[in-house]
């Protein structure tokens, strides 16, 4: 599987609970493929995801006990309140290595950026730098796959543009993804796109953030 389809962005709006079925189905699929799975979000969303997985007949308690599934609410925020890029990248790289040592095919990770960032003060440049460093990790570690969740209702337009521009592939649901024609390969290219096409980018993000209930109607 190429890194373009292993590192995806999921853009959504509306109640976060609406996007859980698609992510739960993806986690279920990865578990069946012998991936260790990691889910990062708030305590409330972790509980909701556990219930969603149980509805899919996933034995959550057993998967956690066997260390096949990890559901965490810890954020990668440093003591100054900023998103700790180094801690997040290093933690994921170590998690991939440990999954392979344990005999898994790899690691599947998904987290909501609103929760991971910890606040709304991060800059466009800092977030897109994180995503590109993450992309390099996907190239370095072919056993890693994952989905970065971007909630349009809680993240600023600036950060939504950063997340959108930094991903080659957009997750739609467990069976559908799209190639991102707006993907920017450098900071200068990303800044140029925002400078020239901010309105167009916002419209593209808006079209992608249709609530899951409407997509499944």
Account of the 3D structure:
The chain is α/β, with parallel strands linked by helices and 217 residues long. It has a single domain (3-215), classed as Rossmann fold, CATH 3.40.50. Helices cover 51% and strands 18% of the residues. It contains 10 helices and 7 strands. The chain has helices at residues 3-6, 20-32, 43-55, 60-65, 85-101, 113-117, 124-140, 157-165, 187-208, 212-215, and strands spanning 7-12, 35-40, 69-72, 106-112, 144-151, 169-173, 176-179. A 7-stranded mixed beta sheet has the order 3-2-4-5-1-6-7, with helices on both faces. Helix 8 crosses helix 9 (187-208). The model is unreliable at 213-217 (pLDDT under 50).
List its salient traits.
Rossmann fold; 10 helices; disordered C terminus; 51% helix
Quick rundown:
This protein is of the alpha/beta class and 217 residues long. It has ten helices and seven strands.
Weakly predicted, low-confidence segments = 213-217
Instruction: Please indicate the percent range of residues in DSSP E strands (runs of 2 or more).
Output: 15-25%
N→C terminal distance: 30 Å
Q: How many structural domains in the coordinates?
A: 1
The residue-averaged pLDDT reads 89
Rg from alpha-carbon coordinates: 16 Å
- The backbone outline, from C-alpha atoms, is globular
CATH architecture annotation name: 3-Layer(aba) Sandwich
- Top CATH class: Alpha Beta
